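Task: complex structure prediction.
Instruction: return structure tokens for all chains below.
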Amino acid sequence: AQSVTQPDIHITVSEGASLELRCNYSYGATPYLFWYVQSPGQGLQLLLKYFSGDTLVQGIKGFEAEFKRSQSSFNLRKPSVHWSDAAEYFCAVGPKTGAQKLVFGQGTRLTINP
Amino acid sequence: EAQVTQNPRYLITVTGKKLTVTCSQNMNHEYMSWYRQDPGLGLRQIYYSMNVEVTDKGDVPEGYKVSRKEKRNFPLILESPSPNQTSLYFCASAPGVGLIGLAGQETQYFGPGTRLLVL
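Output:
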């Protein structure tokens, strides 16, 4: 069965510290991979995506993610977080062909300490 | 401005009273989808549509209906809402259907969400 696991429900980091949010997936084949961010009271905004090629992808707001096929992981990173990064982050996977059925992880809530 | 809109944004209703949540996109996207978001469960797909008059069930379709009579609109219908349908609902759209060679087409754009409370 297809599934996405975000092991950390809630993470707290200090402003200026580095950040890594974990995402592991179980899928029949290498899927397309996404990270979305949801700010309080807002919809989901795409941070970055991986389709093929370079396994380190750059996104908006200074985020990057690295696809590791051997570990079935797609962890999100940022070298130095800002207070405005406080939000909920969702990892998602989707098929390379056929219907665009995204499977989401449970989400990781990020709190930033001043 | 390219966007996905949903109405209403907030809704309180009672068990059994039929309701419709509208979703509209102005990007001429073929694909549209409905998700519900519940704490600890992330987003789960309710229904999706790959084009006009083409709809299919997602992971949690029970208690919901959809229709796709026009490309831009994809309403979500709750014929007889129940308290377990209290949730945050998101509509999404995407340009294509994930065909190889159309990298970038697969990105889904989300609406602002509709928070529903069923008493």
